[in-house]
Amino acid sequence: MVVVMSPEATDEDVAAVVARVEGVGGEAFVSKGVVRTIIGLVGDIESFHHLNLRTLRGVADVHRISDPYKLVSRQHHPDRSTVWVGAAGRQVPIGPDSFTFMAGPCAVETPEQTLAAAQMAKGAGATILRGGAYKPRTSPYAFQGLGVRGLEILADAGRATGLPVVTEVVDARDVEVVAEHADMLQVGTRNMANFGLLQAVGEAGKPVLLKRGMTATIEEWLMAAEYIAQRGNLDVVLCERGIRTFEPATRNTLDISAVPVVQATSHLPVIVDPSHAAGRKDLVVPLSRAAIAVGADGIIVDVHPDPETALCDGPQALLGAELRELAQAVRRLPSAVGRVDAGELSRTA
Ligand SMILES: O=C[C@H](O)[C@H](O)COP(=O)(O)O
Ligand SMILES: C=C(OP(=O)(O)O)C(=O)O
């Protein structure tokens, strides 16, 4: 931490800062410039926070040098992590060596629709099946998901296709039942800052897919991941799914630069959701290509056997030609950036 004194600060003001810092066991290194004095602090950063140094006379600014998140930071864990998803016998990696393709219906609607979507996903090369049983909807009158029945249908489709499943949990009270049926728990954009839910999934004993809040900064997103890690669960995968901007051409604006920014600062894997970012099926393939090129550890994509009748997000669901094009991109492009298909690295024993 660095304290910048104002040009008017006196020697007494500087001494007062040093005394406060030393009073909580820290060290203060004073560097006098021609105009300003700067004080470098070494010690327990949390105890410095409680000193409210900004309120002292002569203090112009206080800067933090180390990351505010610890467990998810590369400062404490330099090597990038791999998260394994699935039960013994079929575990799929998400991490720096592979590229993981996840796909499935936005919402679980019926056993037939879910199985058909799961088969489409598998046929296109996906190694993890997605599907929502609890849908976070803008309108309370919109389809809210099938709840526990939806979890069962999704788990059946996962078993039938041999794919581990990821599904969203929107309420801390449902974490246990969702964890019973799913291989990975998703926290969606609307709940990224629901700290009680983050703590609950941190204790569920399953990997977590943490989507970026649509108005969250990267630091806020990583602090949300820290909530999960702080409860003992470091199996967290981050998902960039687009942020709110002034641009109405797409549902959200995919912040593609978030991928390398996060990878530089956090060891957690980071994937991209081009479907919820764009909200339009015609952009899913180009954005997926961009995600692969920028170094994402995977993508998660909506597919539906009959998008016109979908109960949620039909316009962004892939079928037919677009899905074939996506399958081709996912088969060919990751190797160009030094990645192998996650299916090849899966643990099957
Ligand atoms: O998975 C999808 C979400 O539930 C969906 O994007 C919510 O958006 P809406 O309720 O505004 O349609
Ligand atoms: C609701 C979903 O996504 P998001 O939270 O990114 O809107 C989803 O993936 O089903």
What secondary-structure arrangement, pairings included, does this model have?
Blueprint: E1 2-5, H1 11-23, E2 27-32, E3 37-42, H2 45-49, E4 59-63, E5 83-85, E6 92-94, E7 98-104, H3 111-123, E8 128-130, H4 148-161, E9 165-168, H5 175-181, E10 184-187, H6 195-202, E11 208-211, H7 218-230, E12 236-240, H8 258-265, E13 270-272, H9 274-278, H10 284-294, E14 298-302, H11 320-332, E15 340-341, H12 342-345
Parallel strand pairs: 7-8, 7-14, 7-15, 8-9, 9-10, 10-11, 11-12, 12-13
Antiparallel strand pairs: 1-3, 1-4, 2-3, 5-6
Helix pairs in contact: 3-4, 6-7, 10-11
Bound molecules: erythose-4-phosphate, phosphoenolpyruvate
Percent of residues in helices comes to 25-40%
Poorly predicted runs are none
> Whole-number radius of gyration?
23 Å
CATH class of the largest domain: Alpha Beta
Keywords: Transferase
EC number: 2.5.1.54
Enzyme class: transferase
GO molecular function, one term: 3-deoxy-7-phosphoheptulonate synthase activity
What's this entry about, in short?
This protein has 349 residues and is α/β, with parallel strands linked by helices. The chain contains 12 helices and 15 strands. Strands 7, 8, 9, 10, 11, 12, 13, 14 and 15 form a 9-stranded parallel beta sheet that branches.
